[in-house]
Design a protein that fits this description.
alpha/beta; N-(1-d-carboxylethyl)-l-norvaline Dehydrogenase, domain 2; globular; 12 helices; 48% helix; Rossmann fold
């Protein structure tokens, strides 16, 4: 398989612009495509803002700013984005019809040996991909913001060349990411499935009045997250003692919530205009801080936390993982 140098990113939205930045920082030449010139302009603005945050946090260098941005070209025509690409990253809306159309257009315009990577969160995209492309197609699913969060789920389809997973694993390791490999597609992968399970319990606690948003987030931040940032979940269990885990299962004191498909608490927040950071309030109020200030502060905080965890792991190792 040819070396990945040229990357076409399809979609300039929330994930498309961010994945453009990931690959540009990694040294690739990028063509970011969107049918909307307005979205392309917005996407480039978001890329510049994100890169400036990385520079402010001393993760990227000011002297490399122009070089990184110079690797990015915006185009409106899909065929222009993919015709000389070694890797095509599909980052469009989670809609079967839209993705089917996009894969068809990629098939018409791209080289036969191009690698196609879909950023889908939960769709089995392989039935949507033209037959002759399946050998070089896989899922590469990222977490926002991917220029900070290093996890990338690499999932093969039933006809994916097994060697492709290793090629993509090596590629993303080279640019500093943390790939997790799946020999076949599983909806939600690992992180999203765990997050979904936690979300069900959180929703139940809120809807039934057992806990406030502050109590829930404090429990996560100061109880779970601090230890998990260093150890993960199963190593944390090792430190606690697996016999305690076994006894907890045997006691059967926990009944997981049954998915209902909605949350009265969430529905009321949205109805009242509290849609999250972009609207100034959600589960919490964000005062006079603008959305851009909040996202910038979040990103700098994540970058500092990530750096500290990496230094701690190096200085205070906890043994080998299998």
């Amino acid at each position: 398989m040819r070396k990945i140098k040229n990357v076409g990113v399809i979609g300039a939205g929330l994930m498309g612009h961010a994945l453009t930045l990931v690959h540009a920082i990694g040294g690739c030449q990028i063509k970011m495509q969107d049918i909307s010139s307005t979205q392309l302009s917005i996407g480039m603005g978001l890329i510049e803002n994100a890169l400036d945050t990385l520079i402010l946090a001393e993760v990227a260098s000011e002297k490399d700013r122009a070089k990184i941005l110079g690797r990015i070209q915006t185009v409106e025509k899909l065929e222009e984005a993919v015709m000389d690409a070694d890797l095509v990253v599909e980052a469009v809306v989670e809609n079967v019809e839209v993705k089917t159309t996009i894969f068809g257009e990629i098939d018409k315009a791209a080289d036969l040996d191009v690698i196609i990577a879909s950023n889908t969160s939960n769709l089995d995209i392989f039935p949507l991909v033209p037959e002759r492309r399946l050998k070089k197609c896989l899922i590469a699913h990222w977490y926002t913001p991917p220029y900070i969060i290093d996890l990338v789920d690499l999932a093969a389809g039933p006809k994916t060349d097994p060697a492709l997973l290793n090629v993509m694993e090596d590629f993303y390791l080279t640019i500093g990411k943390k790939p997790v490999l799946f020999e076949k597609f599983i909806s939600g992968y690992v992180a999203n499935r765990l997050q979904a399970a936690m979300g069900l319990e959180i929703t139940k606690l809120l809807d039934e009045g057992w806990a406030t948003p502050s109590a829930i987030d404090d429990s996560v931040k100061y109880g779970l997250a601090l230890r998990m940032a260093l150890m993960g979940s199963l190593m944390k269990a090792d430190f606690t003692g697996l016999d305690m885990m076994q006894r907890g299962m045997a006691n059967r004191t926990y009944d997981p919530p049954i998915p209902k498909g909605n949350s009265p608490t969430l529905d009321e927040l949205i109805k009242s205009g509290r849609g999250g950071v972009m609207s100034g309030a959600g589960y919490f109020d964000y005062g006079d801080l603008t959305a851009s200030e909040l996202f910038k502060n979040r990103d700098i905080g994540l970058l500092r936390l990530k750096r500290e965890v990496a230094q701690i792991e190096g200085k205070y190792p906890l043994g080998k993982k299998t």
